[in-house]
């Protein structure tokens, strides 16, 4: 078996996402978080407005 | 169901299964059998991950959750986007770099054989039980509603999924899930549109939400810090993150889905697709339930949605006490309906005080109706103990059968079966893979040809399929179906996640320390579950934290053991 330290070589964040407007994975993750925050905000607004 | 419904149902189910077998014919190697042909694109992976998680229970039971409890259940998914980002950034690259078949192979690589077997055993135990529930849950609802023989429904749907999963392996699962999801989406969107059309003409979108909100059905987010409340923002965000991290990151039925991607990019994008779409999808399904609630404020709902209770009522309709419940419920509903009409008129006229008064009266009448329903349920349960099952699982199917046209009924029942088969296929595929790779190849026969491994994997997949059918034939309901599945997962997932967190982030901890820490933590979770009344969403966090902390403590007190193990690896 390989020693555990071999995993230190894992550095796939620089790999191209292949998406037209989001070239980095950090950008993709940021968009996912923004989408999540927007949904939670919408749900909070829905709760406050109609309950 | 009419002949047209049966044609739609049987045609779509068998058609997809046969297509899956045909598309994956001739695949002989273990790699292609367990991971597919390594050409799967991100969209197919995304749908496959979604289909694996969304079982028939999701589509049958979640609208009922929305009907009875409102939108609050959506909070359980608040941790999902965060969990999937962590998996895409950390878990997936490591699994792919090591080229593992199962997640538990990584535990063996990082720690030792016994820890690998422990992780795999926890998976087999909880997923093996869950697989039975996956097949039992839709079968009990559909068999009860349609009057089909329950055992025949369980066995026939179980055998269909066994045949195409055994024959086609992981590739067949992914291929069929794509089309099964198409049927599911088509069915749910059709139901949603028809429901909106069926709402009263004078009821606008804001009227609908205001009406539902007045009955506390639009309370999507609850910031309460009470740990005994099941669905809150905090339990969803923190407990939910750990639950989803454990499910998507360590459950082989999910790991196998995204490992089948053509590249790391495809796997990651498939996960991000779910991170973006899952909350809106669950919100839509819950909203469907809320709209059904609004619909039944204008139409007479049954005293019970639960088909067993309805059947009992029909058979014992001459009982004066039971008849009185039904009569009272119908008259109180008519009164509620009139008061809601008054509220709507006052609202449209801009008379706020009249609207408030009318809605207050409607609310009181509605509560009286619910009281009658509860008393009737209590009376029926006392007479017949077999009638205690939850109403939530029957709300949507009752609405479908009573309100939707033929053809659409067939499409929606096909959607439920598609969901059942898709999640079941992924589970069987994972159980077969894990048994072959982590137990059979590891313990019994370490050297053999690829053909031998594939044959063994097929036998194990069939074995688990038969175990699931056997379990389903003897399963009994615990609470609401979807909650039962989530509770079962919550008990085991925390410790499984703890094993992987230690493996990824605590390089100094060795196999023996984490092995014993996991065993003690799992015992602790069992003890807490049976003695506390906190929300089940907290148990993955507790199990994971206990495993991590105990691993560090044990490693501190057993430093020599860890060093010996590191030399052995």
Care to describe what's here?
With 51 residues, chain A is mainly alpha-helical. Chain A has one helix and no strands. Chain A has one helix spanning 25-50. The longest helix of chain A has 26 residues, at 25-50. Chain A is rod-shaped and about 45 Å long. Chain A starts with 24 loop residues before the first helix and ends with a helix. Mean pLDDT of chain A is 80; it is low at 1-6. Chain B is an all-alpha fold and 569 residues long. Chain B folds into two domains: 3-295 and 402-474, Sodium/glucose cotransporter (Up-down Bundle); 307-388. Chain B has 22 helices and no strands. The interface between A and B is medium-sized, with 31 and 38 residues.
Q: Spans of chain A of 5+ residues with little confidence (pLDDT < 50)?
A: 1-6
Total helices of chain A: the number is: 1
SSE ordering of chain B? HHHHHHHHHHHHHHHHHHHHHH
Strand content of chain B: under 5%
Order of helices and strands of chain A: H
Largest protein interface, residues of each chain? A-B, 31 and 38 residues
Most strands sheet of chain A: none
What integer is the average pLDDT of chain B?
85
User: Pairing-aware structural class of the strands and helices of chain A?
Assistant: mainly alpha
Known CATH architecture of the largest domain in chain B = Up-down Bundle
Mind summarizing the main beta sheet of chain B?
A: none
**Rg value of chain A:** 19 Å
Mean pLDDT of chain A: 80
Compute the number of helices of chain B. 22
Percent helix among the residues of chain B? Answer: over 70%
Distance between the termini of chain A: 58 Å
Proportion of beta-strand residues of chain A: under 5%
Proportion of helical residues of chain A: 40-55%
Strand segment count of chain A: 0
Quaternary class: heterodimer
What does the overall shape of chain B look like?
globular
């Amino acid at each position: 078996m390989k020693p555990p330290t071999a995993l230190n070589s894992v550095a796939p964040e620089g790999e191209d996402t292949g998406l037209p407007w989001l070239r980095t994975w950090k950008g993709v993750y940021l968009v996912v978080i923004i989408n999540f925050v927007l949904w939670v905000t919408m749900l909070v607004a829905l709760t406050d407005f109609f309950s | 169901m009419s002949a047209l419904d049966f044609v739609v149902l049987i045609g779509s189910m068998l058609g997809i299964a046969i297509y899956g077998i045909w598309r994956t014919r001739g695949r002989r190697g273990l790699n292609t059998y367990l991971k597919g042909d390594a050409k799967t694109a991100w969209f197919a992976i995304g749908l496959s991950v979604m289909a694996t998680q969304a079982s028939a229970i999701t589509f049958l039971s979640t609208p009922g959750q929305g009907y009875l409890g409102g939108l609050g259940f959506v909070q359980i998914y608040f941790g999902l986007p965060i969990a999937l980002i962590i998996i895409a950034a950390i878990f997936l690259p490591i699994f792919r770099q090591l080229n593992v078949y199962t997640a538990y192979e990584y535990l063996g690589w990082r720690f030792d054989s016994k820890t690998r077997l422990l992780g795999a055993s926890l998976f087999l135990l909880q997923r093996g039980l869950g697989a039975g529930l996956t097949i039992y849950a839709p079968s009990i609802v559909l068999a009860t509603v349609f009057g089909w023989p329950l055992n025949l429904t369980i066995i026939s749907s179980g055998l269909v999924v066994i045949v195409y999963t055994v024959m086609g392996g992981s590739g067949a699962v992914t291929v069929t899930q794509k089309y099964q999801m198409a049927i599911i989406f088509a069915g749910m969107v059709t139901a949603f549109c028809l429901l909106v059309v069926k709402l009263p003409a004078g009821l606008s979108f804001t009227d609908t939400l205001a009406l539902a909100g007045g009955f506390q059905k639009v309370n999507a987010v609850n910031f309460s810090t009470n740990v005994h409340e099941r669905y809150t923002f905090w339990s969803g965000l923190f407990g939910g993150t750990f639950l989803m991290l454990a499910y998507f990151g360590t459950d082989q039925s999910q790991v196998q889905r995204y490992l089948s991607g053509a590249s790391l990019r495809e796997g990651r994008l498939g996960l991000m697709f779910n991170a973006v779409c899952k909350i809106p999808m669950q919100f839509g399904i819950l909203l469907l339930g809320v709209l059904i609630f609004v619909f039944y404020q204008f139409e007479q709902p049954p005293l019970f949605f639960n088909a067993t209770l309805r059947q009992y009522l029909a058979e014992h309709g001459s009982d004066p006490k039971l008849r009185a419940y039904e009569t009272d419920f119908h008259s109180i509903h008519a009164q509620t309906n009139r008061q809601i009409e008054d509220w709507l008129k006052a609202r449209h006229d801009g008379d706020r005080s009249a609207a408030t008064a009318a809605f207050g009266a409607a609310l009181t009448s509605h509560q009286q109706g619910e009281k009658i329903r509860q008393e009737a349920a209590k009376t029926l349960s006392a007479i017949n103990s077999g009638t205690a099952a939850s109403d939530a699982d029957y709300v949507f199917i009752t609405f479908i059968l009573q309100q939707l046209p033929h053809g659409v009924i067939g499409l929606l029942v096909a959607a439920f079966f598609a969901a059942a088969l898709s999640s079941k296929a992924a589970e069987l595929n994972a159980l077969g893979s894990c048994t072959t790779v982590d137990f059979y190849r590891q313990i019994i026969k370490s050297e053999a040809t690829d053909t031998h491994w594939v044959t063994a994997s097929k036998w194990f997949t069939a074995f688990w399929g038969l175990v699931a059918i056997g379990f389903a034939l003897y399963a009994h309901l615990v609470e609401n179906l979807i909650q039962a599945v989530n509770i079962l997962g919550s008990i085991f997932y925390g410790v499984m996640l703890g094993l992987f967190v230690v493996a990824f982030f605590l390089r100094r901890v060795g196999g023996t320390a984490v092995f014993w820490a996991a065993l003690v933590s799992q015992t602790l979770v069992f003890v807490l579950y049976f003695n506390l009344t906190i929300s089940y969403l907290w148990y993955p966090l507790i199990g994971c934290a206990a495993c991590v902390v105990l691993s560090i403590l044990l490693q501190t007190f057993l430093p020599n053991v860890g060093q010996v193990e590191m030399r052995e690896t």
